[in-house]
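Structure tokens please, single chain.
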Amino acid sequence: MDQVQWNVIDEYLARSLLPADATLDAALRASAEAGLPNINVAPNQGKLLHLLAKLRGARRILEVGTLGGYSTIWLARALPTNGQLISLEANKEYAQVARANLDRAGVSGVASIMVGAAAHTLEKFVADNVEPFDMIFLDVDKKSYPEYLRLSLQLSRVGTLIVGDNVIRRGRIADLASTDPDVAGLHEFFRLLGTNPRLDSTAVQTVGTKGWDGFSMSIVTS
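Here you go.
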């Protein structure tokens, strides 16, 4: 198998299971035209996030890393009308593109973007004792995943679902001697997932239009 075949299969899956969606296509197009990096989740991955949020019955979702808001739209569409999604983005230009995409998608009533360093915002949430989230999606700098996990646990309740994206790094996660800051951060992230008594976790490798990668998934149990 190679990247060309992975792309063909992902396209087949999307064509078979995901209806055409002009709004999501427009979000991707607007992001590309604004020069945002092409690192958003794939369509079938976005649908997976959507289904996970629905299965969880999520009313409050926290997303760490907005980019152009593509995954934000998928998640927001899973919320009830009285739900709330807060997405954190450090780059104000990205946030501007994402807000326009959320408006176009008609989800800005339930989804909002906060600009600033994610760790600082999360720390403020903890200090302000905000209502816990039902689902948390981490999709930002991997070197900081351990810190984001520590803060996310303080913003969780029993049953909160925590998903970490891009945790395989094209197989580099298996190199325990790696000095890459992102890989080293993920090694610590996995150590915490595996040893924290409050978490029940797994991780899955994926291949597709986004190459060889994967995600972790954890349920807060206590």
